[in-house]
């Protein structure tokens, strides 16, 4: 049991009864003469019910939210057998933290850090454990200010993973109202190869199961939903068996493979998705969620004057504070297809409308870029581009790393988990093993 941030962890059950009684008398005496320490128990609990994420989960029944639900019988558990692992909580716009209480399950951390961050990227250490023995660790007398708090495990105390019944964060929160309109979206491109769950190497059943475990508000796809020629029969035999489970909550766009259908370009795509993919009668459309405006585009026809004019008109009507667009062909990519200039005119329109985020597929890897303009110049008011083409098709290697590329992952299937509020956005690239392979910064909408 940890009593103070500077004291080594000890369990009271390890002490003889007479020594324990003497220690209790000493503690009572100290509490009488040190009212500030006695008041630590009165600190306000500020973490219960707050949004939580983790590096991994053992399975969907042990999600990170279980450590913040106020119940002593539920818990978060990481994947087994690997270090490091972490769990973090979003405390709101800003919080001052004075105490963190951890209640470990049998799978405890031998070494870990408690850290705080304003942006979820740069972390400041509040406490360090190097000889943990499980049980309850109660870190008091802390001083730290930030939005995100995490427990970062570096060495397991057992051969299993990390597991916490409870993470309680105490302190005070900013008087500024917390972000509103928060919701989660799962996104992926390049999905259904012609295989089924009967093959252990078939990836799209695994990415579909992962997408369902995340349980987002809705799903969006960035094209090449079905391989190879996207016939209606292929959609029914493959895509529908996996990602089709949440078809009604999916907002797709077509890729180049949807145009290869022998029955006619986009015939199978249109027959399968129907009004879901053509809600406004065209393969491009828009919709709103919270303070976000989403624009779904068909990059196979960026030379179509009607689509370009529709885009300009749609953006002119937009009243939302945050703007995201998604389509198949990325303007920037470090993969085999590389940069696709067909998307530059659309980027110019989006950049002029102060768009925040662009999502693409086409190249079968994950990649994120720093904010940049249509000419590839890094700028704070630029667009963040993410390539998320690892939904199930065969991976492509990274070939030529592009300027402003911040992170690239190839060979690991997974999905994008986008966390959006009325004013901010961030994301994680989550692998089919439930482990977070990359976390993006938290950006404020333009």
What key phrases describe this protein's structure?
23 strands; Jelly Rolls; 2 domains; 7-stranded mixed beta sheet; 9-stranded antiparallel beta sheet; disordered N terminus; alpha+beta; about 450 residues; 7 helices; globular; Purple Acid Phosphatase, chain A, domain 2
Structure explained in plain terms:
- The protein is an alpha+beta fold and 446 residues long.
- It has two domains: 40-173, Galactose-binding domain-like (Jelly Rolls, Sandwich); 183-444, Purple Acid Phosphatase, chain A, domain 2, CATH 3.60.21.10.
- 15% of the residues lie in helices and 30% in strands.
- It contains seven helices and 23 strands.
- The protein has helices spanning 17-33, 35-38, 204-214, 232-237, 267-273, 305-317, 344-352; strands at 44-45, 52-54, 76-77, 85-104, 109-117, 124-129, 136-139, 144-156, 163-173, 183-188, 218-221, 250-251, 285-289, 292-296, 322-326, 357-360, 366-369, 384-388, 405-409, 414-420, 424-431, 436-439, 443-444.
- Strands 1, 2, 3, 4, 5, 6, 7, 8 and 9 form a nine-stranded antiparallel sheet that branches.
- Strand 10 (183-188), helix 3 (204-214) and strand 11 form a beta-alpha-beta unit.
- The longest helix is centred in the N-terminal third of the chain and has 17 residues, at 17-33.
- It starts with 16 loop residues before the first helix and ends with a strand.
- The model is unreliable at 3-41 (pLDDT under 50).
- It comes from Streptomyces nymphaeiformis.
- Residues 33-172 form the F5/8 type C domain.
- GO terms for molecular function: acid phosphatase activity.
- Keywords: Signal.
- InterPro entries: Calcineurin-like_PHP (IPR004843), FA58C (IPR000421), Galactose-bd-like_sf (IPR008979), Metallo-depent_PP-like (IPR029052), PAPs-like (IPR039331).
């Amino acid at each position: 049991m940890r009593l103070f941030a500077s004291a080594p962890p000890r369990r009271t059950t390890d002490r003889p009864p007479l020594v324990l009684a003497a220690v209790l008398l000493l503690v009572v005496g100290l509490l009488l003469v040190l009212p500030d320490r006695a008041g630590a128990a009165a600190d306000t609990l500020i973490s219960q019910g707050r949004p939580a994420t983790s590096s991994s989960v053992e399975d969907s029944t042990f999600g990170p939210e279980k450590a913040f639900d106020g119940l002593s019988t539920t818990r978060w558990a990481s994947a087994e057998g690997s270090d490091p692992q972490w769990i973090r909580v979003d405390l709101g716009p800003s919080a001052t933290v004075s105490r963190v209480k951890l209640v470990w399950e049998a799978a405890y951390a031998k070494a870990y850090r408690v850290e705080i961050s304003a942006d979820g990227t740069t972390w400041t250490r509040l406490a360090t454990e190097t000889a943990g023995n499980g049980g309850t660790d109660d870190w008091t007398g802390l001083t730290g200010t930030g939005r995100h708090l995490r427990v970062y495990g570096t060495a397991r105390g057992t051969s299993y993973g990390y597991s916490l019944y409870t993470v309680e964060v105490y302190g005070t929160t900013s008087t500024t109202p917390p972000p509103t309109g928060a919701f989660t979206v799962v996104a992926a491109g390049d999905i259904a190869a012609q295989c089924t769950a009967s093959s252990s190497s078939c990836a799209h059943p695994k990415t579909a199961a992962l997408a369902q475990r995340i349980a987002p508000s809705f799903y969006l796809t960035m094209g090449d939903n079905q391989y190879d020629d996207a016939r209606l029969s292929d959609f029914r035999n493959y895509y529908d068996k996996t990602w089709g489970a949440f078809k009604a909550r999916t907002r797709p766009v077509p890729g180049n493979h949807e145009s290869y259908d022998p029955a006619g370009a986009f015939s199978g795509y249109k027959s399968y998705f129907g009004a879901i993919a053509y809600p406004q009668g065209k393969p491009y459309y828009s919709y709103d969620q919270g303070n976000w405006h989403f624009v779904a585009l068909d990059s196979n026809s960026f030379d179509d004057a009607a689509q370009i004019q529709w885009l300009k008109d749609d953006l002119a009507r937009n009243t939302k504070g945050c703007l995201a667009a998604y389509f198949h062909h990325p303007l920037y990519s470090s993969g085999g297809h590389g940069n696709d200039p067909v998307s530059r005119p659309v980027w110019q329109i989006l950049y002029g409308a102060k768009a925040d985020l662009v999502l693409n597929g086409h190249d079968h890897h994950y990649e994120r870029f720093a904010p940049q303009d249509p000419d590839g110049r890094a700028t704070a008011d630029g667009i963040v581009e993410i390539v998320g083409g690892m939904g199930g098709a065969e991976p492509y290697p990274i070939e030529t790393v592009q300027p402003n590329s911040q992170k690239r992952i190839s060979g690991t299937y997974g999905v994008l988990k986008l966390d959006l509020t009325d004013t901010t956005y961030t994301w994680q690239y989550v692998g089919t093993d439930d482990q977070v392979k990359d976390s993006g910064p938290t950006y404020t909408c333009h």
